[in-house]
Write a structure and sequence with these properties.
Length: 509
Amino acid sequence: MTDTPANTPADAPEPTEDDVFEQKAVRLAKRERLIDARTDAAGGAYPVAVPITTTIPALRAEYGELEAGAETGVTVGVAGRIVFSRNTGKLCFASLQAGDGSRIQAMVSLANVGDESLAAWKELVDLGDHVFVSGEVISSRRGELSIMVSEWQIASKAILPLPNLHSELSEESRVRSRFLDLIVRDRARETVIARAKTNASVRQTFASHGFLEVETPMLQVQHGGASARPFITNSNAFDADLYLRIAPELFLKRAVVGGIDRVFEINRNFRNEGADSTHSPEFVMIEAYQAYSDYNGIADLTQELIQNAAIAVAGSTTVTWADGTEYDLGGQWDRLPMYGSLSEASGRTVTPETPLDELVAFANEAGVDLPPHPTHGKLVEELWEHFVKPGLTRPTFVMDFPIDTSPLVREHRSIPGVVEKWDLYTRGFELATGYSELVDPVIQRERFVEQAKLAARGDVEAMRIDEEFLRALEHGMPPTGGMGMGIDRLLMAITGLGIRETILFPLVK
C-alpha cells in the first residue's frame, strides 16, 4: 500500500484503523530514509534547528496585498506544517500552516530545485509534516502569496496521518485529541487566543484598580472557602493527608488581614464532584478581595471585569456565540432579590422565617428534588432555581441569600435572616459570586461550628473549623468585599461554548 495522497479530496472518508496502521508503516520507512540521508554529527531523522528568517503571519502582514504574478526579489526562510499538497510533473504545491492557522503556499519547481530535490519532495513529504522552505516571496498567477522554493528540508515527520481537514471532528475527538483539534479547526485556536486575551484583560482591569496578584497553596492541610467535596491525597514527606484546593478564599483573606488591601488570584481549583456542560472537576477561578468595600462595590468591579474581557475578545460588549446568537453583556445589570423574586415567580410568599417543613411541602408540591441534607437555605435556593432561574435572560445579580448556606458571609445590614451575597447569572448558569465578607471571628467560629454539625451528620460538602483562619481573623480584618468567578465559565459567556471546549485539556475518562 502507498501512503494516502497528500491532496485528499474533501469528500474522502476517514481512514480506517487498518489504513492508519499501514500508513504509519509507510511513513516510518520514509523516516528511516531521512536518517540514512543525514550527514551531520547530530544524527537522527530531523534537524536540531532550521534557519528561519521570518514567520508565516509576518509574511502575510507584509506581503498579503501583492498583485497576482508579482515578484519581490526578497528571499526568506520559513517553516510550517503541510496541510495541503498537490504534486504535478514539474511543479509541486503545498500549503504551510503556522500555529495561528495562517497559511502560505510553497511552490517547488524542477527549474528551481532540480531533479533530485523535486523527486525527494514527491517521495518523502506527506500531509502533517513540518517543512522548512527557503526562496523568493512572490504572488502566484492566481494571486496566492507564495514562496518560490530554492531549498527545503523536512523539519519533523508526521508518523500518523492527519484527520480529513474538510470534515468536522466529533466533540469527543476534539476533547481527547486537542492537539489535532488545534491543527484542523479555527475555532479551537480562536478559543485558546480568547482565553489568553481574557486573562490579560482581567489582570489589566485589576491593575487599574490597584490590586496585587498573589499565589496561594494548592495543597492544604484543611480544605475550605467553599461548600464542595475535596480530592484527598497524601504527603510522604509530612506523612499526612492533604486536600487539593477547592477555593483560595481563606488564604486570600489572610493576605487582607496582613495589609494587602486589594488582592486577587487566578487559581486552579479541584472539586471531587460531578462533571457536566458547566462543571469540571478541575477548573480555573478568579478570586478577589477589596478592603473597605462591600458586595455592591465588588459587583460593580465584577461587571467591569466581564465587560472589559468581552471587549478584549470580541471588540464589543455584544458578543456572538458559537451558534450565531448575539448576547448583550453591556449596560448596567439588574440586581434581583432572591426571596422577593422567588415569591413573585412561584405565587407563594417565601421569607427567611418560612419554616423548614413548609418549604419541604412546597418543594414536594412543585416537584423539586430535596437535597440530601435539607436546610431552610438549601431548599430556598433549590426552589429559586426551579421557579426563577429559567426566566433569566440578561446578566443578573441575584442578591441576598439565606444565612445557613453562606457561612463566610456577613449578615445583611438591614434585612434579618439573610446575608449580603450575590450570584451572577449569565446564559442560564452561575458565572460568579460575591460577598460582603464576614470579618467577625466570634460569629465566624459559630458559623464553622454549625458547618461541623452538618459534616458530622454526613454532609461531605460542609466546611470544617479552621483554627488557623480564625486566628488570622482575631488579629483584625477590615470590612471587605470579595468575589469569585470561573475563567472557564467566563469564556462560556463570551463564546457560547461548553465548558469542555473552553478548557484546553479537560479531564476525560
